[in-house]
Amino acid sequence: MVRLPATGKKIGSLVLNFGGPGGSGVNSLRASKETVSAAVRERFDVVSFDPRGVGGSSPIRCMGTLDLDAYFALDPTPDTRAEVKKAQTWDKLFAKFCAKNSGKQLLAHVGTVDAARDMDVMRAALGDARLSYLGFSYGTYLGSIYADLFPKRIRTMVLDGAEDPSQHAEDFIVDQDRGFQVATASFMKDCFKAKGCPFPKHTVKAALKRLDALYDRVDESPLRNEYDGRQVTEAVARAAVEYSMYETANWPRLRQALTDAYKGDGTRLLMLADESNGRRTDGRYDNSFEALMAINCVDHPENACPNWPVKGTRYPKKVHAKGSPPIVVVGTTRDPATPYRLAEALAAQLSQGVLLTNDADGHTGYGRGSACLDHKVDRYLITAKAPRPGRCDDTRHKA
Fold it and tell me: Which range of residues forms the domain containing residue 69?
């Protein structure tokens, strides 16, 4: 755990989860003290943590750098038997190495239900009778599970970029694919107005066709890079594009990376993909991807984890959190990773769900430029008085 002390008269602690699963809350809070507003900083000790299996908390470890490099370069659209068999072989190896290097005992207990119970121990250790919580992305899944387990131990809870705990993993993947399509279209429309846009025909249809042509090209013949000896494959290109959809601040970087790629240089695409995959500049990986796989395979036994060495126990079901105070759910209309309709679904199933709609691009809403949304969330966190359900238009600066 890590704590950023309140700057004024303290109400209590505000616990943050930045998402993932697999993301280090300790590193994220240390890297960005501006995750919450000055008004919230004044009244709360801001606390974050590494859930079990993540970062500094008995981290899941599976493969070394070279193996992970190869794993992340696998063809995401295999179209021959050999490519399919290669992917299956690597999936088996990944599971085998996770069991060997992390142990089944740890792997069996990194799920979100365990993490939610840990969070209640944390609440007590912090000296708070009730939990104040702000969760982003996967953090909404963790928060909703906590709410269902301990509804009367909540003071305030904001779930931003919501997942639906009742949704089957395959359906989530379908929704997420659609979300990335919507976000990519927004990126392209923005690109058409920018200098140096790599799409000469200014229609989304034509730009998507040109992007698909790039994927096909690097599938057949990977690009060079000026960074190291790795090849820039289709998997790398797709990871770079998808990663860039999370924040509009990355759109200029992606424009330049695609411009370079069409000229045969994949260096900038590789750098974006490395950020997505948790590969540090020294060549080592953090354990975010390995933890993500371990947590998801325990949380979603209905998912495609046929080789995983332990069995999960939580199947999709609705959360109601009966007896809780109002819980604020934030949904962003063009969110690529957690599409807006998932926020609608979560707010509807919670017995005291309050939906705030953020009409904007990018993943999650709080602290990303909407004064309207930030004000409503801040006021709720500080006063514990829930806002009315409503909509905030995008006021952020366009990339």
Answer: 65-108+286-299
